Amino acid sequence: MPHVQTPSLRLYYELEGDPAAPPLVLIAGQGAQLTSWHPELRHLLIEQGFQLILFDNRDVGLSTKWQSGSHYEISDMANDVAELLDALEIDAAHVVGQSMGGMVAQQLTIDHPMRVLSLCSIYSAPSIEHLGDDPEVWAIREQEPATERESAIAQYIERESLCGLAEYTPEWIRAHAEATYDRCYCPEGADRQMAAVRSSPDRTLGLRQVNVPTAVLHGLADRLIDTSGGYATALAVPGAELHTYADMGHQLVPSLFGDYVRVITRNISRAQERVHTHA
Q1: For residue 274, what pLDDT band results from cuts at 50, 70 and 90?
Q2: What are the residue boundaries of the AB hydrolase-1 domain, all occurrences included (predicted)?
Q3: CATH code for the structural domain at 3-133+188-278
Q4: pLDDT mean across residues, the chain
């Protein structure tokens, strides 16, 4: 299986698309594995002429798990991405992150500005101030993790349903939940990631220094990270585009895949035009 050994951990990764195409890193959200990026969305991005770099963040999937009681921050996870690019001998890449992955993408752009060609932050935020405060959401999100397969799958479906799964069939949801559990079940790692989200400092000042083309996407029906997080991100980054969607929660929905790809591709085109202008 493809792993890279960085100075601090082993990261599992996959590459999809033409190796000669511009690299596009996809960073998954809290507790999510690289398989959380829908195959159809990935296919559409590859059709646009990108090589996708997908990986399991630390503490989930097939990457290194931290010991109980360990602590890290979003900046450490951003360093993981920079070290992955080092191992793959990629100087710089376009970066797309969703939720916590958007936070990691933001921090990567702040801390390693020469490694990021363009940034797309999806239903994310510059700080925890924008986490939703719906008591029903957090009562479900913060349940004690299940200890056996069937209850863990049911719990996963209940949590993901909060995000907005109306466009997905029950059969697809069930199959995805089973595959996710069977690939790796590590609720302790997801909890450590959530602790990293909560303990990491506000990125607003750093985002004001970002000078790569940036697109921000957010659903107006998001119950986990308030839409204010998308507005705050877009306001902080000079020249950022903001795209909001009325019927989108905290989930990428199939009917909008084409528009997500359009926005991401146009944002990348802005970066490529800038390179050509300064060449």
Answers
A1: confident
A2: 22-124
A3: 3.40.50.1820
A4: 95
